[in-house]
Design goal:
Blueprint: H1 2-28, H2 34-54, H3 74-84, H4 90-101, H5 116-151, H6 156-170, H7 173-184, H8 208-246, H9 249-256, H10 261-279, H11 281-291, H12 293-299, H13 305-315, H14 318-346, H15 352-356
Length: about 350
């Protein structure tokens, strides 16, 4: 197993290289780079200044040396390109970036006075909260419910729970989040949960127990909203997986030997049926951690990696864009490896090394 893990770790290097290379290539053809962003902002500021100085009333005259309409001097633009590192060829910049990333040196944000790594670490708690709690909650609810539905397949309980799950899956996460705000965050009905943030303003003054309860109080609505889609999919996946295993010959044989239903279910069926559920863990985690984070963070006013990546892409803040992309890529690859290791933990008969040889 050690050789398999080593190979997977080595494969992460070309995978990350391909991700960064493809996105770096795309940025070379995107209009409105960081230099253009700065120049556009300066142009807007000087245009506003010209309007104020020339049309303020009271007989004021335009400023004589106003340069808004004349453009900026080429020396200033060249200095700006040098500051952003665009005075070097694209290939040189790409390999310099790769060399820095090997030591987790992501540089400094173009438009914020903070290093990219510190910025990512500052936003990470929000995304970790949404990703881990939502995934954990989805599995804790979906697996027992899916097993129960499989054992009572075709019953009234199975029918009603399936209808509820399908409706939950059909509701977009952003619409469900807005509904939670309206109902429980003081929108039009009850003010039970806070409207924004992960903690209260007086969080530092609370006791340890008070801080924990305050944190849990704040994450109820955003975690619930981000869990709804994963919960529905995972429940049906668990049910169908158990139904497939229950119909197999080894289950019939185990029952014929007089084993109890619980022993058959949890001693034989559970291990085999859970393999496909475990296989979906990376997709569930990554979908919650990355896919829905922007919408949920925006609605609940949470400042996490989703909003950071989006705003950085709009501003063409490339150090932050590639830094978050690198972190996201590493996390996704590591979660995939952990999923394979969990396969072996659930069923030791699985041998990835023999399959690759």
């Amino acid at each position: 197993m050690g050789a398999y893990v080593l190979r997977r770790l080595m494969l992460m290097i070309p995978t990350l290289f391909g991700i960064l290379a493809l996105n770096f290539l795309l940025t070379q053809f995107m209009p409105g780079g960081p230099v253009e962003q700065v120049l556009a902002q300066l142009q807007q500021d000087t245009d506003a200044l010209g309007r104020i100085s020339g049309g303020g009333g009271g007989g004021a005259e335009p400023v004589g040396d106003y340069r808004g309409a004349q453009g900026l001097p080429p020396q200033f633009i060249a200095e700006l390109e040098k500051q952003f590192g665009f005075d070097k060829p694209p290939l040189t910049r790409f390999f310099l970036m790769l060399g820095n990333y090997l030591t987790f040196d992501f540089g400094e944000s173009y438009f914020r006075s903070i290093s990219v790594l510190d910025l990512i670490l500052e936003k990470m708690p929000v995304s970790i909260t949404l990703g881990l709690w939502s995934t954990l909650l989805a599995y804790l609810i979906s697996i027992p419910l899916g097993i129960r539905k499989a054992m009572r397949d075709g019953s009234t309980f199975d029918t009603w729970t399936s209808a509820t799950i399908i409706v939950a899956y059909a509701i977009p996460s952003f619409l469900f989040a807005i509904m939670l705000l309206v109902l429980f965050a003081g929108g039009s009905y009850w003010r039970i949960f806070p409207l924004r943030g992960l903690t209260s303003d007086n969080w530092a003054e609370l006791s340890l127990l008070g801080q924990m309860l305050d944190y849990l109080w704040h994450i109820v609505l955003p975690v619930t909203a981000s869990t709804i889609g994963a919960f529905a999919t995972l429940t049906l996946l668990t049910k169908n997986s158990f139904l497939d295993e229950i119909k197999k010959q080894y289950v019939i044989t185990a029952r014929a030997k007089g084993l109890t239903e619980g022993r058959v279910l949890y001693g034989h069926v559970f291990r085999n049926a859970m393999l496909i559920v475990i296989a979906g863990f990376p997709a569930v985690f990554i979908a919650v951690f990355f896919g829905g984070s922007l919408i949920i963070e925006t609605i609940f006013s949470l400042d996490g990696l989703g909003r950071l990546a989006y705003e950085s892409a709009i501003q063409r803040d490339y150090p932050v864009v590639f830094g978050t992309l690198y972190i996201f890529g590493v996390l996704g690859l590591v979660v995939g490896l952990l999923s394979d290791l969990t396969y072996v933990w659930v069923d030791p008969r699985i041998d990835f090394e023999s399959r690759e040889t």
